Structure formats: structure tokens, C-alpha cells
Amino acid sequence: MKKRIAVLLSGRGSNFEAIADSVAAGRIPNAELAVLISNRENAPGIDKARQRGLKAVVIPSKGRQREDYDREVVGLLQAKKIDLVCLAGFMRLLSPYFVDQFRNRILNIHPALLPSFPGLEAQKQALEWGVKVSGCSVHFVDENLDAGPILVQAVVPVYDNDTEEALSARILREEHRIYTEAINIVLSGQWRLQGRRVLRTE
Fold it and tell me: Alpha-carbon distance 112 to 59, whole Å?
């Protein structure tokens, strides 16, 4: 039985495409992309999903209470029998209700080496702080912003003449690589939590 993955996004969907490519190429074995959900009707990721023949659903979030919205999304995910939820530029904080329904089954990718630079404009934060390395992190989602246990990280150098756009592009290439790695870890079941640490058990 294939593991069923859902992707939630709000924008362009580049990490969604990387996940879809990995599933199609067998780099994420025994898995299928069961549904893509966007909270924004004009998100480019929706068209990208439909061009691939994948199920894409828009559930608009504007003006709705967080938990009310999340209950509708969770209902769809449960109806689709989703095993793993992957956030790919989903610009909403999940409610405790959502997290409880999929505890340790929600992943997010963040363009910084957490716990440094959580939230928006992480690459801009990194440049303003003058760090010498940045990168990206895939972590479990909990009730707090960019704070769940970390599965995989990748380091990217920061150059003296870097711009936010150049740094973002280099980080994005690593995001596409490590998201697949993190998904495989979770779907394999060969991991355990020890405090905040995600340990491999293979």
C-alpha cells in the first residue's frame, strides 16, 4: 500500500514540484501525491499540480478563524486517508487542533538553519546579521512557529557580495534536495524522538 502525501501551499510551489518529481522518479518510493491544497485561489502551484494531473483543491482562508479553517482542511485530509502532510510555502500557522490530528506527520521546510531566523524573510535576516553560513531545515510542525524537532538541515555559504535573491536561490536548491530526504526518513518509520532530537533507528 502506497503512503499518501498531501502538500499544502500558498504560492509558486517550487518545493511541491520537487516533491512531485521525486515521487514520479521513485526517489520517494511506495508513495503517491494524493492531494494538493492551497488557501489562495491564485497560487501558481495550483496550475502546476493540475498540469501534472494531480488533484488540487482550493480552500480559501481569507477572513476565516484559524481553527475553523483548519477543521475543514483536516476533514479533507482525513477523507483522503493522508499519511503525511508537507507544507511547501503554506503561509498560515496551524492550529493546535490541526497539529493534534497529525502529530509528527506534518513537515515544513524553512530557508534558514533553525532555530536561527524563524518566520518571514529568513534570508534577509541572515544577511542583516552578517552570518557566514545559512541554509535550510526540514522540521516537524508543532504548535509554535518554526519550532518543531529538526529532521534534516543543509548548510549554504553566505558570500560578502550576496544579495537576498542570490542567497535564496542557492538555499532553494538545497531545499529541494533535503525535503525528499526528510520525507523518506518519516515514511520509512525508522526514526524516533528523544527529547527534541530526531534519531534514526535503522
Answer: 28
